Amino acid sequence: MSTSGALAASPEELADRLARTGYLCDDALATVGFLALELARPLLLEGEPGTGKTALAEALAEALELPLIRLQCYEGIDASQALYDWDFPRQILHLRAVESVAGSGDGHADVEDVEKGLFSERFLLARPVLRALRESPVVLLIDEIDRADDEFEAFLLEVLSTFQVSIPELGTVSAATPPVVVLTSNRTREVHDALKRRCLYHWIDHPGLEREVAIVRSRAPEISEQLAAQVVTLVQQLRTADLVKAPGVAETLDWARALDRIGARELDVESAARTLGTAIKYREDAERVRGALDRMLAR
Which residues form the domain of 170? Predict the structure, then answer.
């Protein structure tokens, strides 16, 4: 079944709905997003940090009026941290309560019933993937999948192929409606082909000058068009410099807002240097940029 229903009859309509949330996308991204909804396929987004991959999932949830469930990947994450776990402290308290009642002579505890009760729904801690299957329709964001290992990828591939999981103590949980799944990767390593084959794929670049100015004006309408253009022009120059971490769109927005808050009406060397920490987050990058601001702003 199509997840999008009447919400987005075309890529153009999806782009329009995303734009209403403040997320401006190009035709290619709108098309692959629309197809992911129509075909009920996960969408894998790769790109440099700060290009708007996570923001797309957030905007998609808002545009579709669906809850957003986020799974943040990290080195060493395993299936239990994505799927479910048992509430051990509450289980121990339950056991002590049963023992107390049995020891007082006021009741008799059947061992088998106690064991079954320990692994019942009341003690289940649903993690993001299980929550998405149970609560769908939702948008499930699997963020920075490239930070996880091969074993975790294999687990995700199985779940995304069937949209169901088996809990030995409770049985099989299936999604009545497949969740909208967005995976992101900063490409610190290659995602395996098997997972890529399950997904629709799109590489997100930093936006061009005109679109990034439009993003700033859309997300921060208090910023003048002149200041927005000056900040974006400088940021785009910085992305071509040899920096440890080039600023993304989020840093562009932060920088423009910071300049507006200190009353700057245009970007000059002094105001840029004073607010540099909103966009540049490494000491060596900051030193290099401060030394080049005169030249960059003179262009």
Answer: 11-76+128-204
28 pLDDT above the threshold of 60? yes
Alpha helices in 119-241 (DSSP H): 128-135, 150-162, 193-198, 209-219, 225-239
**47 and 144 housed in the same domain:** yes
pLDDT bracket for residue 260 (50, 70, 90):
very high
User: Phi-psi bin for 46: left (phi > 0), alpha (psi -120 to 50), beta?
Assistant: beta
Cis geometry, peptide bond prior to residue 137 (ω within 30 degrees of 0): yes
**Number of domains comprising the chain:** 3
d(CA 29, CA 61): 16
141 and 281 co-located in one domain = no
What is the tens place of the pLDDT at every residue in 79-117? 889 988 887 787 787 777 777 666 555 555 565 666 666
CA distances from 291 to 116, 285, 287 (A): 68, 10, 6
| pLDDT, tens only, 42-92 | 999 999 998 999 999 999 999 999 999 999 999 999 988 998 888 778 778
Same domain, 273 and 180: no
CA distances from 196 to 20, 45, 191, 206, 248 (A): 30, 10, 7, 22, 25
Is 235 domain-assigned?
A: yes
Tell me what pLDDT residue 131 has: 94
Domain boundary among 204, 233, 251: 204
SS3 120: coil
Euclidean distance between CA atoms 259 and 266, whole angstroms: 8
